[in-house]
Amino acid sequence: MSYTFELNNERKDENFVSGTIKSNSPVVEIFSAMVQGKDLSSFGVKADKAAKYITELNNKAAVGDVIATAELNNIRRLSMEPVLLKEIKLLSIFGNYTPIGYNESCEVEVPVYANVTASTQAAGQDVSFPIARKRRVSVPTIVVSGGHAVDYRKAALGNMAEENELQEEVRKQIRNKASKYVISTVYTAIKNATGVKYFFEGAGLTKTGSDGVIGKVRRFGKPNIWGDYALISQFNAWAGYVGTTPTINGISEAVMKEIHDSGIMGAYNGSILTEIPNEYDLSTLDAAGTNFNTVLPQGLGFVTPTGTNSPVYNVTRGGLTSFTGNDVTSGTIMTRFDLEVGCIIVPDQEYKIGMLYDTNLGGIE
Q1: pLDDT for 206-234, tens place per residue?
Q2: Which has the closest alpha carbon to 316: 188, 177, 186?
């Protein structure tokens, strides 16, 4: 699984910037407004000054000025970073999310339970009671990247439409890679756990295997089942639903309406079924070469109990870092943005998340 956007002769932009432009600088806000196609009149005279400065930087970058390119990438980074980190917070769907500063150690505080062994009270004696303590755990990290080529001449002429599309593409690349990394880490931890775990893997979901996971997780709280449509829709057959015609075969009219509106039931044996949106990754093809891969594994589903603290901890360290260099394949001048992402699942607490994996659908390999 590749997480890098390769360049050769890469330069770290922060080594070439003046350092005068900060996240609260007017030029950053005005640049963001230009990218989004907003009216600049509310900025008054600052708008003309900032627009002129951005145009000059693009003209210089178009002829290979390293310092101008670095300054532009710094403005891009400061413009894009708040939006991206807000989107990255969606990682909290898989657990706890904490942003960590550049200079902070990559650790999180996790609960650890003691005295959890079952025991019977003997006459005149007391039983042990579970104790919750906190300890700090190191979180391993990887770097995920997104990048693009910029037509500086277009930007110098005031055409920022392409800039908007490219920034959105970079955020999507980083967000998707971060999500895939977290899901892969959680899957591997639960599959390899040696203690109590609730895990089913097979060539297609089976009712017996899935019920086994769901029933065990249910004792911690009402289960929620999350997964790609291809996985979640398999639950329809177990309720006796066949075909797409409006025929009610022992199913309530309300459930039939759910299926016809969304393609899947809203609940299965009291557990909420939720489809995780999973778009195509247009940069990769499936093994047969006949279709695109999806961003997230189609075959992987999670069973999480309501009201239980997640054992999954996600972090991002610092913010975006930008690099400029030549693309290895084409030689085009490219900009790459990196973000450091980490994930752990607390050891011996893997049982807090149930897992279903259909190897026919796959995607985790």
Answers
A1: 999 999 999 999 998 888 898 888 998 89
A2: 177
